[in-house]
Amino acid sequence: MPLASKPDLPLEIGHVLVIDIVGYSKRLITEQSRLLETLKNIVRETAAVRAAPEEGLIRLPTGDGMALVFRGNVEQPAECALEIAAALRQQPDLPLRMGIHSGPINPLLDVNERANVAGAGIDVAQRVMDCGDAGHILLSKRAADDLAPYPRWNPHLHDLGEIEVKHGALVHLVNLFTAEAGNPATPSSITKKRAPLVAPAARRPNWLTWVIAVLIIWSLGGVIWWFGFRPHRITLQPIVAPSVPALPEKSIAVLPFENLSEEKANAFFADGVQDEILTNLAKIADLKVISRSSVMQYRSGSARNLRE
Lower Cβ count inside 10 Å, N or C end of the chain? Predict the structure, then answer.
């Protein structure tokens, strides 16, 4: 069924390479100019740029770098990025990060009547590049899927998964690197965003265990000091009837510890702590320690919630 009306703008897919000088804003103005000029010379000498026809490549300044919009195929920005990365080995003071995406573009003219371009393809390429560190060549999954079927590219594409970027948008990233070019390390933006998803769950059991252990050790130390190291007092033994057995002056019972956490494994930990306390108290010669089996009747029958 034909469309009701003709679109205002022709649909065109551009293959975008966005290049950014890392730490550009922190440089002196004279150094910024020098680095931009060096970058322009490197880009100008790449085979992909030299081979592209004038109407097949649009160069856009971005303030701290540039964007190259190829109208041919997705191999052009990928080849250009690898050539630039290889040339950077001779320019250690020029740290770059690059992003590649294939998406819709809108050709237009700027205020000087020169060819320009806008559109979602450039915006996504910028977001992809923003996720990288110095040396990274990051691709959107859309661009990587177009390269993956070819043996020349497939071994050098490494999936990084999805990451949330500005305004809550999700971008699926792929890292492009070879033995001579690119950065094989995982971008710091990914490690920082994924770490909080795992850390809280890992910290809670350790925090609870340490609190319980500190309280138990503190209590055990107080009990041992009270019965083992305080000055002995002379007391008069009362006269009792022969039928009633006399209890030792010093006796102690260690009641069962109750597991108030949601982790069932902590119940075994609590029983082990009780046994450890009983064992240490039994070493005191003049102290009678009530056996563990005698105090088990005082264990709480129903489970309680610590938060309540």
Answer: N
Per residue in 257-272, pLDDT (tens digit) is: 776 766 666 666 677 7
For residues 34 and 173, state if they share a domain.
yes
Q: How far apart are the first and last CA of the chain?
A: 65
- Distance between CA 30 and CA 125 in Å, rounded? 28
Which among 99, 79, 80, 104 is positioned nearest to 11, based on CA atoms? 104
Task: Mark whether 176 and 275 lie in a shared domain.
Answer: no
pTM above 0.70? no
Largest pairwise CA distance in the chain: 118
CATH classification of the domain holding 177: 3.30.70.1230
Instruction: Write out the residue range of the structural domain in which residue 249 sits.
Output: 201-298
Residue 174 tokens, joined: 């792929």
Number of folded domains in the chain? 2
